[in-house]
């Protein structure tokens, strides 16, 4: 199922096509080349000083034991649909620069850019990525042995969206809900902040 963004002006098709479904093909297993392609896209995201503060811990569905452990780090609501995806990624950001160990105030921002590249590359490959904030940070930190200097930012679930003709009526209705965004003129100001606009 495609849900193109209803934009006020034209944007790149890849960006318009990207969305976050919750219904995936449970039989689809991602191969190594696809995984590497997705991570390669993240590698080329911009970052302050070219520091690349991100690290990703990936869990393949084909490795069932570790997959289930990672899945259990998610909130129940996210587990209910993410169990049908093929790859789970724990997204981490180094709080400090590598070159001098000083605080990197831009690490979260840069890691977000790398994560968006993952989502866009997934869309380009005919897959879908869904980012999540509903997870237990301590659980995934312990499971994956994530060092304390890294913040666990999010999880990304990636898989093949289920064909519409294979969905239940309830799934079609839920997935078919229109995407919503603020109006374009509500997200920016020109030259100075305008309190009357919010």
Quick overview:
With 198 residues, this protein is of the alpha+beta class. The protein is built from 7 helices and 4 strands, in the order H-H-E-H-H-E-H-E-H-E-H.
Describe this structure as you would to a colleague.
The protein has a single domain (13-181), classed as 3-Layer(aba) Sandwich (NADH Oxidase), CATH 3.40.109.10. The chain has helices at residues 13-17, 32-43, 64-71, 76-82, 107-124, 137-144, 169-175, and strands at 54-60, 87-94, 128-132, 150-159. The mean pLDDT is 95. A four-stranded antiparallel sheet has the order 1-2-4-3, sandwiched between helices. Helix 2 packs across helix 5 (107-124). It has seven helices and four strands. By secondary structure, it is α+β, with helices and mostly antiparallel strands.
CATH superfamily: NADH Oxidase
Q: How many beta-strand segments?
A: 4
Question: Helical residue percent?
Answer: 25-40%
What series of H and E elements makes up the topology?
Answer: HHEHHEHEHEH
* Tally of DSSP helical segments: 7
Low-confidence segments, ≥5 residues, pLDDT <50? none
CATH topology: NADH Oxidase
SS content category: alpha+beta
> What gap, in angstroms, lies between the N and C termini?
35 Å
- Please give the domain count: 1
Largest sheet, in brief, is: 4 strands, antiparallel
Q: How much of the residues is beta strand, in percent?
A: 15-25%
Q: Which sequence of strands runs across the widest sheet?
A: 1-2-4-3
Q: Tell me, what is the CATH class?
A: Alpha Beta
What is the gyration radius calculated from CA atoms?
18 Å
């Amino acid at each position: 199922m495609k849900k193109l963004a209803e934009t006020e002006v034209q944007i790149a098709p890849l960006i318009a096509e990207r969305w976050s479904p919750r219904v995936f093909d449970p039989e689809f297993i991602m191969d190594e080349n696809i995984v590497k392609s997705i991570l390669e896209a993240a590698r080329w995201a911009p970052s302050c000083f070219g520091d690349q503060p991100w690290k990703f811990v990936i869990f393949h569905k084909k490795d069932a034991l570790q997959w289930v452990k990672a899945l259990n780090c998610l909130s129940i609501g996210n587990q209910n649909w993410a169990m049908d995806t093929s790859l789970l990624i724990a997204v981490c950001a180094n709080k400090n620069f590598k070159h001098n160990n000083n605080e990197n105030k831009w690490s979260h921002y840069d890691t977000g850019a790398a994560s968006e590249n993952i989502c866009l590359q997934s869309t380009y490959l005919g897959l879908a990525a869904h980012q999540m904030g509903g997870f237990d940070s301590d659980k995934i930190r312990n499971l994956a042995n994530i060092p304390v200097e890294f913040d666990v930012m999010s999880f990304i679930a990636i898989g093949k969206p289920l064909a519409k003709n294979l969905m239940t009526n309830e799934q079609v209705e839920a997935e078919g809900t229109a995407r919503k965004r603020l109006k374009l003129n509500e997200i920016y100001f020109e030259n100075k902040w305008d309190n009357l606009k919010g």
